[in-house]
Specification:
The complex is a heterotrimer. By secondary structure, chain B is an alpha+beta fold. Chain B contains 19 helices and 24 strands. In chain B, the strands form seven sheets. Chain B has a six-stranded mixed beta sheet, sandwiched between helices. Chain B has a three-stranded antiparallel beta sheet with strand order 2-1-4, with helices on one face. Chain B has a three-stranded antiparallel beta sheet with strand order 5-18-19. The termini of chain C are far apart. Chain C has two domains: 136 residues, Rossmann fold; 71 residues, no CATH class. A six-stranded mixed beta sheet of chain C has the order 6-7-8-3-9-10, with helices on both faces. Chain C is built from ten helices and ten strands. Chain C is an alpha/beta fold. Classes of the chains: A mainly alpha, B alpha+beta, C alpha/beta. Chains in contact: A-B, A-C, B-C. At the A-C interface, loops of A face strand 2 of C.
């Protein structure tokens, strides 16, 4: 592959995606599913900042996703007095969820590895029960609805799946750009330094606490942003079970498959797994049914997924895109000068 | 003054004394070595100096300072903020956040477009936190309106609270109004009964049925005229056998059969006297099926107020007075003002403990209020205290000491193995470089210039330690000796005044060690004082200005290289009769 | 007689980088052979290929007449080849005594193990003092002693030592080299990689000099010690 192509293919892939809804014969359901995949890509990118770059195992990302969704719901539905409309709600949800991340991270900064994982897992459970039981605030199992469509000057009428598809694509593109910049900046290096060797990083004068907090804040804020988009594209906050431990693990799987600590990996992992689950499996089932088969592929999809995960861990444990492409530009490291 | 001074430094781990009352002073510009047998406590001294350990006893003075974080205004602010947050959170939780939200937000939410009653919400917030009385509206199903003749007039009034809504001279009009009001009241309080005529013109007939929605007044008038024409037309058979509706010789519409034409005319007649009305910006009160506009208002507020009035007057809405501590209502009142009067009366009665029940409520309220205040105070204390403890435990930390000019390398190399060589060095500068997240995220020119400068400096430092040409490799792929050199470059990037090197020559052959002595000299010539741990006497002896020898955690000798080399205790404990190197 | 260990044109590397560019060397029974060279010449990589930790890309590695290229490390150890890895790879949570016993894992002569344990403690008295401490709490140099002592405990046919003197006090270095000489006299064959080239050459019978992944010179140790080029490049005189 020539270097230009190698550098530009993510951009080309995004552009191709943008054209997809205009290809005749593309069903609107596919656009709807792609929109979900784009939103979950943003969520995976958020988790990637915390787990992939900084190496802090966070098992409660779904909770932040939920906080973003419910903040948006609370700020926009007509049963509450705020009714700010979507755009301010998007900003508040993003910033607010980032703050929630800081609040969770502050007392747990000294924890590492397993211990932090347990705390984040517990936080996820707390949020799950809070959503279920604070019915006056979250609407309980009825969810908060309806969330009005975002207003745009010069455009009225329903957004539909295409509108949300482009909104998600635009925001994903912006998030990718900003994260790529951060990755190559001083802050991105400090995140990775904490992952590689915290003591050595401290001896470089880095305040590990501040660096970890910034990772938690940005990761959670991205999760909140994804949650906000998710809620508005559903017109409601949805089923409370969307924000449980299961979701956290699924998103972690996106990263593991795609490659930890790699932007492309996070997005591709999301596309591969969600594409398999939401697009490929129903398509195969449709074909099987048309062929008169009584066997449903859907019954086996988790087995296939499990086997694929095992095979992945055996043959390519670093994921589809490893964290660092080895781009040694120099001669092999042998010999004296 | 000495750059680094150890005064009686003692380190104990459990029962084990690793370092025992060590004193020495490193002057500015020196190369100062610490030697001694393995396990003598040399690395422990380094760890105590760089803040990985806190001294059990004694002091480590750097430039005369202990390098502990001072108590600044920022710490105080953080304590207050965290305290306030935890306090509020605990208080709100102990007051039942879900019900609080309902009392303050949900119940006060106005209908679409209305403004939020902040004063009332604030009052509700206070009474809720104080476990006071709350009002809840309640929809009354036992509503009916009746007409009563009184003094020659027909009065429309509610059967539940006997309030008079309207009175009319004309009995027929009263009957018609009764129907309208019944419709309105039955939907009282529901936002769907308000529809904006915003931007649209409607055509209505005298029975107030909506016939059409139109973008502007002209279209509405055209529609009205069309309907009038149709109702006044007559059915005529056309030459081609079809039937048409004709007025004044003008064909208005053509139909296949006479029946269809008659139907259309009847329809239009039914709608006749249609008129364009309800100008843009008016608000309508509609009935439930949204077919009939019952009343028209200029503004939303007027319409909403009318709706509420009607609901109250008809006894449709009632106010229940409840407490948070007992679920049943203390009183039910049909009127908001009366509800507030009743609330004040009840509050006084509870305070006075007029009846045993009210007295019990009063006691429960006092308990609740105490609980809320207690949670607030406990949260304040917990938050502020916790912040203080965390700050205190992190007063003397590695990063703070490093930023104050103390760099180090490690005995077991600790690089960032999955990062590039040049990034490892840039990392040494990163903590001191300013710049916000936003600058980094948007790659502002200032940020890019900073990165570029850091990269140039990193290349310069890598050249200085002899790693030119290896900048783009992964640190983990460097051979052992080069990793040591990289660690030195990285430590130098933090711009230290004092550089601590822990066995820099380990893993180097004698020739490379000689090179290293040159490097250490050049580091000193850059104005950096060097504190060195090393076993290779070929490195230590020629470059050290002063040497300290440790054995079993205690200092057994100090002096110039020649003095140390000749010291019999040092030879016995450390050097051995015959030197290996 | 066939050599105990023979490497023929061994090539190996990491990722895209080739570190060993065709290494051939021999170690005869009863010899001490040393491998010297600059940092990054590939000495450690050579040892890793022999002990099976790194799989060589091509070439033959023959130990006691058996091709061991491609065998897993545990099988190679059972054949009588033991390595003390560079960088103090000890078991940090096991005590010092347990670490040493792990070294004798493949042996089944309790009397001999006890005797070797006694000798290890004699060699490194500090280890005896700290026998019940977890290995991870030892200082860096003490961990190095533990790693060397553990490698000696396995009483291999062929002992591979990677920088035994790394980070050790001069007196301890002397003692380690004395012990190696003793063990050799009792019949143990040793292949040692050592930065301290002078001490290694004094100890060894023969030496190989490596440069940028290839062997550039081989001779009797005493001859190498006198070679002006070696003096210049590695002995720092």
């Amino acid at each position: 592959m020539n270097p230009l192509l190698r550098r530009c293919w993510p951009l080309a892939a995004l552009a191709a995606l943008a054209l997809l809804p205009w290809i005749p014969g593309v069903p609107s359901k596919l656009v709807l599913q792609l929109k979900d995949i784009l939103i979950f890509s943003i969520l995976a990118l958020g988790l990637n900042v915390v787990v992939g770059y900084t190496g802090l195992l966070n098992l409660g990302i779904a909770a932040f996703f939920g906080i973003g969704a419910y903040l948006t719901g609370i700020l926009t539905v007509s049963t509450f007095p705020f009714q700010t409309g979507f755009w301010p709600a998007l900003v508040v949800a993003t910033v607010g969820t980032g703050l929630a991340g800081v609040l969770l991270a502050t007392p747990t900064l000294r924890l590492r590895g397993d211990y932090l994982a347990i705390v984040t897992l517990g936080f996820g459970e707390v949020i799950k029960f809070a959503i279920k039981n604070l019915e006056n605030i979250t609407g309980g199992s009825k969810a908060l609805n309806p969330i009005p469509d975002p207003s745009l000057p010069g455009f009225s009428g329903p957004w539909g799946e295409k509108g949300y598809f482009y909104l998600a694509l635009l925001i994903l593109g912006a998030v990718l750009l900003l994260l790529r910049n951060l990755e190559r900046s001083r802050l991105g290096r400090m995140w990775m330094a904490i992952r590689e060797d915290e003591l050595a990083a401290a001896c470089m004068g880095m305040n590990a606490a501040t660096v970890k907090l910034s990772a938690f804040a940005i990761g959670s804020a991205l999760a909140g942003l994804a949650g906000s988009l998710y809620a508005v594209s559903l017109d409601q906050t949805g089923d409370p079970s969307s924000y449980t431990f299961n979701r956290s693990i699924t998103v972690l799987c996106f990263l593991i498959i795609g490659g930890m600590g790699n932007l492309k990996g996070a997005v591709v992992g999301t596309f591969v797994l969600m594409g398999y689950d939401n697009i490929l499996t129903p398509w195969i089932d449709g074909r099987l049914q048309a062929a008169g088969s009584k066997v449903q592929f859907g019954d086996f999809k988790l087995i296939v997924f499990g086997l694929a995960l095992i095979a992945m861990m055996r043959f390519r444990p670093e994921g589809i895109f490893p964290s660092r492409r080895i781009h040694d530009t120099t001669e092999p490291c042998v010999g004296v000068e | 003054m000495a750059l680094l001074e150890l005064k009686g430094l003692t380190m104990r781990f459990g029962g084990l004394t690793a370092v025992n009352k060590v004193d020495f002073a490193v002057e500015k510009g020196q190369i100062f070595s610490v030697i001694g047998p393995n396990g003598a406590g040399k690395t422990t001294v380094f760890n105590a100096v760089t803040g990985i350990y806190d001294p059990t006893e004694g002091q480590v003075l750097f430039d005369g300072r202990e390098l502990r974080r001072p108590f600044t205004a920022r710490v105080a602010t953080a304590m207050v903020l965290v305290g306030l947050f935890t306090g509020t959170a605990l208080a709100v939780c102990s007051a039942n956040v879900d019900q609080l939200w309902r009392a303050v937000v949900v119940l006060n939410t106005p209908e679409a477009g209305g403004s939020f009653p902040f004063a009332k919400a604030a009052r509700d917030f206070r009474t809720f936190l104080g476990a006071g009385l709350l009002t809840e509206t309640e929809q009354n199903r036992l509503t009916d309106l009746e007409i009563r003749e009184k003094g020659g007039k027909s009065e429309i009034r509610s059967t539940t609270n006997r309030r008079v809504l309207e009175s009319h001279e004309d009995a027929d009009l009263a009957v018609r109004r009764l129907e309208v009001l019944k419709e309105l009241v039955s939907f009282g309080g529901s936002p769907r009964s308000l529809v904006a005529g915003d931007g649209n013109w409607i055509t209505v007939n005298p029975r107030r049925e909506i016939l059409g929605l139109h973008p502007d007044e002209a279209a509405a008038r055209r529609h009205a005229q069309e309907l009038r024409d149709l109702s006044a037309s007559e059915v005529k058979e056309q030459p081609d056998g079809k039937h048409a509706l004709v007025r004044d010789g003008r064909v208005l519409a053509v139909f296949g059969s006479p029946g269809e034409a008659e139907d259309r005319k009847a329809q239009a007649t039914h709608a006749a006297e249609a008129a364009a009305s309800a100008a843009a910006g008016k608000w309508l009160l509609l009935d439930g099926s949204r077919q009939v506009a019952l009343e028209v208002f200029d503004s939303r507020e007027k319409a909403a107020a009318r709706l509420l009035d009607l609901a109250v007057a008809a006894g449709k809405l009632r106010w229940r007075i409840v407490t948070r501590v007992s679920p049943q209502a203390l009183a039910t009142v049909p009127d908001p003002e009366e509800a507030f009067r009743e609330m004040s009366r009840l509050e006084a009665a509870i305070e006075a403990g007029t009846t045993p029940e009210l007295a019990a409520i009063g006691r429960a309220q006092v308990r609740e209020r105490a609980l809320v205040w207690l949670s607030l105070l406990a949260g304040l204390g917990l938050g502020a205290g916790g912040t203080f403890v965390v700050w205190r435990r992190a007063r003397r930390t590695t990063d703070y000491i490093s930023r104050n000019g103390l760099g180090r390398t490690f005995q077991n190399i600790r690089l960032f193995p999955e990062m590039l060589v040049v990034e490892n060095v840039m990392m040494g500068m990163d903590a001191k470089r300013g710049g916000s997240v936003w600058q980094a995220a948007f790659h502002t020119p200032g940020h890019r210039a900073g990165e570029e400068a850091a990269r140039r400096k990193a290349y310069e430092l890598l050249g200085f330690v002899g790693l030119k040409g290896r900048e783009g490799m992964l640190a983990r792929n460097l051979p052992y000796g080069d990793q040591r050199r990289l660690e030195i470059a990285r430590a130098m990037a933090t711009e230290p005044a004092l550089l601590l090197l822990d066995e820099p020559a380990a893993g180097m052959n004698p020739a490379e060690s000689v090179e290293l002595t040159g490097l250490i000299r050049r580091i000193r010539d850059r104005g950096i004082t060097v504190l060195l741990i090393e076993h290779h006497m070929k490195v230590v002896m020629p470059i050290s200005d002063r040497i300290v020898v440790l054995d079993y955690g205690s200092k057994i000798a100090e002096g110039t290289p020649a003095e140390v080399r000749a010291n019999p205790r040092v030879i016995e404990a450390y050097l051995g009769k015959e030197e290996v190197t | 007689m066939a050599p105990l260990l023979a490497l023929e044109d061994v090539r190996a590397g990491y990722g895209p980088i080739e570190v060993l560019k065709g290494i051939s060397l021999e170690v005869n029974e009863g010899e001490i052979v040393t491998l010297i060279g600059a940092n990054g010449a590939g000495k450690t990589t050579t040892l890793m290929c022999v002990s099976g930790i790194l799989r060589a890309r091509s070439g033959r590695i023959v130990f006691r007449g058996q091709e061991i290229h491609g065998l897993p490390p545990d099988l190679i150890v059972r054949l009588g080849l033991s390595q003390s890895p560079e960088g103090r790879k000890i078991f940090p949570r096991l005590t010092v005594l347990e670490n040493l016993e792990m070294g004798a894992f493949t042996r089944d002569d309790p009397a001999g193990v006890a005797q070797d344990l006694g000798r290890a403690f004699e060699l490194f008295p500090i280890l005896k003092e700290r026998r019940s401490q977890p290995g991870g709490t030892l200082s860096g140099g003490e961990q190095q002693m533990l790693a060397v002592a553990r490698a000696l405990m396995s009483r291999p046919k062929l002992l591979l030592l990677d920088e035994p003197s790394l980070g050790l006090a001069p007196m301890i270095c002397i003692r380690i080299f004395d012990v190696l000489r003793d063990l050799n006299k009792q019949g143990m064959t040793v292949l040692v990689v050592e930065q301290n080239a002078r001490a290694a050459l004094k100890l060894a019978h023969r030496g190989y000099v490596m440069e940028t992944g290839a062997i550039v010179m081989t001779d009797r140790a005493a001859a190498l010690l006198d070679d002006p080029k070696i003096k210049d490049a590695y002995l720092g005189e």
